[in-house]
Write a structure and sequence with these properties.
This protein is an alpha+beta fold. The chain has six helices and ten strands. It folds into two domains: 124 residues, N-terminal domain of MutM-like DNA repair proteins, CATH 3.20.190; 124 residues, Helicase, Ruva Protein, domain 3 (Orthogonal Bundle). Strand 6 and strand 7 form a beta hairpin. Helix 1 packs parallel to helix 6, helix 3 crosses helix 6 and helix 5 crosses helix 6. The two termini are 28 Å apart. The chain binds a DNA duplex (16 and 16 nucleotides) through helix 5.
DNA sequence: CCTGGCCCCTGCAAGC
DNA sequence: TGCTTGCAGGGGCCAG
């Protein structure tokens, strides 16, 4: 489900309800999601005030003085702030209750999501060594160009590599390459500096625009307030196989790259 | 080091 | 209608 814009939309949705609020209890309805849920979540989080809700890559970080809860939504995860007495539904795996009478409820049918813990001053090993945030100046086309030299993997796979830049998933990789006019199958090492400069610009523009639209709802993504993401209407490539390119009318094609469906216009992208 | 493939899991839609 | 198959927004891990 969620790429960076959807995770950021989720962050903005939950933050006003839980920042500055005290956790009164944690309910784990199963001991694991993708990984076992560390004991610190149940032992240290209750009683803490959530000082801030941050995002790093596709992780949400609930910061407290005792440590940070890391939440990842995987493919199908969803977070909502609900009244504490809201009935439990299937796949409602975790509740974090607050002194406001609300609970932050984590729902995730496929359980590719995660709930982890990071002690104060530490960086979780999964966050070590990952690339820059795409919407900061640490990410630019020059970086992509330098890292890509000699690489034979498709440029789309390269763009989705978390060591290169974080947060760009399957939808926005296709969209950014469309906007930059680059064929997703092209070897990363054979894309020019000039084209990487353009690609980085488009990544930034598209992610910012998608956040502005509340993300992309393909089937089930809803923001914590229940709103769908409206960027779906602005997709040029993703999910449009066989449909006419919105720019030139050529049918959009789909090809599998890195075990992921990749959509492109054979006329606009070279 | 880099690359491609596999796997985790459930739900849904399409095809027979 | 019901069964089977394939696919889905992520990403860690492994062998080559």
């Amino acid at each position: 489900m969620p790429e960076l814009p959807e995770v950021e939309t989720t962050r903005r949705g939950i933050a006003p309800h839980i920042e500055g609020r005290r956790v009164t209890g944690v309910v784990l309805r199963r001991p694991d999601l993708r990984w076992p849920i560390p004991r610190e979540v149940a032992e240290l989080l209750p009683g803490q005030v959530v000082d801030s809700v941050d995002r790093r890559a596709k992780y949400l970080l609930l910061n407290t003085s005792a440590g940070t809860a890391l939440l990842h939504l995987g493919m199908s995860g969803m977070l909502r702030v609900l009244p504490a007495d809201t009935p439990i539904a299937k796949h409602d795996h975790v509740d974090i209750a607050f002194d406001t009478g609300s609970v932050l409820r984590f729902t995730d049918p496929r359980r590719f999501g995660a709930l982890l813990w990071q002690m104060p001053g530490e960086t979780h090993e999964l966050l070590e060594g990952i690339g820059p945030e795409p919407l900061t100046d640490d990410f630019d086309g020059e970086r992509m160009y330098q890292l890509s030299r000699g690489r034979t993997a498709p440029v789309k796979t390269f763009l989705m590599d978390n060591a290169v830049v974080v947060g760009v998933g399957n939808i926005y990789a296709s969209e950014a390459l469309f906007a930059a006019g680059i064929d997703p199958r092209r070897a990363a090492g054979k894309v020019s500096r000039e084209r990487y400069l353009r690609l980085a610009q488009e990544v930034k523009r598209i992610l910012a625009l998608a956040i502005n639209r509340g993300g992309t709802t393909l089937r089930d993504f809803l923001a914590p307030d229940g709103a769908p993401g409206y960027f779906f209407q602005e997709l040029f490539a993703y999910g449009r196989a066989g449909e006419a390119c919105k720019v030139c009318g050529t049918p959009i094609r789909v090809v599998t790259l890195g075990q992921r469906a990749s959509f492109y216009c054979p006329h606009c992208q070279r």
